[in-house]
Amino acid sequence: MEAIAVEQIGSLYQKYQDDLRVVRDAQRRFLRDRGKSMRAQLDDFEAEMTYLLLRDLRPEVVVEVGTFYGWSTMWILSALRDNGVGHLYSFDIVDNVVRNVPKELSADRWTFTKGDIREHPDKIPAGTDYLFIDADHGARFAHWYIEHLFPAVPAGTPTSVHDVFHGRRPRPFSEGSVIVKWLAERNIEFLTPSTAKAPQVTEYLAAVKKELGLDEPVRDSDHNPMIFFNLP
Fold first, then answer.
1. CATH number of the domain within which 137 lies
2. Is residue 150 part of a domain?
3. Which residues contact 176 (CB under 8 A, 6 or more apart)?
4. Parent domain of 185
5. Which phi and psi (to 5°) does residue 196 adopt?
6. Is residue 108 part of a domain?
7. Helices (H), 136-221
8. Per-residue pLDDT tens for 217-231?
9. pLDDT of 181-197, one tens digit each?
10. How many distinct helices (H) and strands (E) make up the chain?
């Protein structure tokens, strides 16, 4: 499977611009109305890229490791709703997400498991079509999911990992340092919208969004440290 390319993301912005505009407005209102009770984690580029890739891939099974307050969960569920197909299986040790995700989004397309995913391997669905990881950012957890979670999902599965590039390099002894090394050893390319690591990517996507009238921020943070890649 070919690596995810920035030009591909740019074309998806154009293809799904009308639906994305609706979701962006809804997310912006939700964040404003919830105030301090909602701590959004994903920045705009990485949230929108997640939505756009899910729209185009039309996965039937999505696994989300780490929900926190549910910001990423809502973006994922919005994509599944707009696709009219797909189910999200989320895992976290806290259940803030249950109070935040609107019922009209969760409907019959979401299963949440409270607890450490390492203790619930039997609940990881077979045939995962998209893997989203934003949980413990330590090296130990990264080693765990590389050794146990990655082999449990099909080869070629599109995958994203959050909080990798807050700077030009991952933080030492972090999840990011482990996953980037693992990818390099296997010659697996990744795409990141990190403003610190890949400013040319964010500049390109910012130009696309401006042309489409999608440049009003949903939230203020613009680090976008997530990486996107396909599992070998």
1. 3.40.50.150
2. yes
3. 137, 142, 161, 163, 164, 165, 170, 225
4. 6-103+117-230
5. -85, -40
6. no
7. 139-144, 175-185, 199-212
8. 999 899 999 999 999
9. 999 999 999 999 999 99
10. 9, 6
User: Tell me, what's the pLDDT at 14?
Assistant: 98
Following CA atoms 49, 53, 54, 56 in sequence, which dihedral angle do they give, to the nearest 10 degrees?
Answer: 140
Q: Which residue has the tokens 């806290």?
A: 94
DSSP string, 41-85: -S-HHHHHHHHHHHHHH--SEEEEE--TTSHHHHHHHHHHHHHT-
Question: Is 14 strand, coil or helix?
Answer: helix
Q: For residue 156, tell me if it sits in a domain.
A: yes
Confidence class of residue 126 from pLDDT cuts 50, 70 and 90? Answer: confident
Q: Residue 75 corresponds to which tokens in the numbers above?
A: 């973006």
Structural domains in the chain (count): 1
> What is the Cα–Cα distance from 118 to 95, expressed in whole angstroms?
17
Contact of 161 with 134, CB cutoff 8 Å: yes
Strands 158-161 and 227-230: antiparallel
**What CA–CA distance (Å, rounded) separates 121 from 148?**
9
- Rg from Cα positions in the chain: 16
Cα 230 versus chain centre, distance: 13
Q: How far apart, in whole angstroms, are the C-alpha atoms of residue 20 and residue 48?
A: 8
Residue 1 within any structural domain of the chain: no
